[in-house]
Amino acid sequence: MSLKKNLLLASLVVLGGAGLAQAEMSATTATDMEVRSGPGPQYPTVGMATRGSEATLDGCIEGSRWCRVDVNGMRGWVYAEYLNVEQNGNTLIVEEHRDDLGVPTITYQQTDPTSTGSIQTAQPSANDELLGPVGQGDGDVVAITPPSEVETYITENPADTVQLRGDVVVGATLPESVIVHRIPDYQYSYVEVNRQPVLVDPETRRIVYVYR
After folding, report:
1. pLDDT band at 153 (very low <50, low <70, confident <90, very high)
2. Mind listing the pLDDT tens digit for each residue in 17-51?
3. Is the CB of residue 60 less than 8 Å from the CB of residue 105?
4. What is the DSSP letter of 194?
5. What is the reported pTM?
6. Residue 119: beta bridge partners?
7. Closest CA to 181 of 146, 154, 149
8. Distance between CA 77 and CA 114 in Å, rounded?
9. 80, 111, 119 from 114: Cα distances, Å
10. How far apart are CA 200 and CA 140, in angstroms?
């Protein structure tokens, strides 16, 4: 399916008591990020939003880190952990302060053109507890060599461990249900899987480094 058809078929539903009058809020992008046509790395990229761009935030999917925005003339989906909102002189990360900010809850529905009337809703899969397979061929992930200050930051800001079945190896993909944590001024995020800290590409959710 083409990107144009994806965008035409996607429809947004604003839920809850926030109402249409509160369905939009102002936000700022915390880093350069890809804007996608749907809430997931499997959706085509609409374009790139540069760091510090002003965005209009429609809302975020409940139980997910994906939010829909208007930014740099594009309308699409980005990560909540890379969106900031100014409130009372403080800069708040949307992912960490969704309830405090009153971010509207939205859902994403996409009609499947191969089946009349069929609706596909973006939700975590039943196998979210499994690590994805290691990529093959063009999708191979090359392990990085992180600077020492990254390990220091992770040590000083420990995250709760996530228990998953599968091998914790470079190239494995984390399920959408796993929340990864941003590292200031660094392109990769981190999470602890089975008591092993790992660095993750936040766009693809694939592991790029494992601390042994």
Report:
1. very high
2. 333 334 468 999 988 888 888 888 777 888 888 88
3. yes
4. T
5. 0.47
6. 111
7. 154
8. 24
9. 31, 9, 11
10. 14
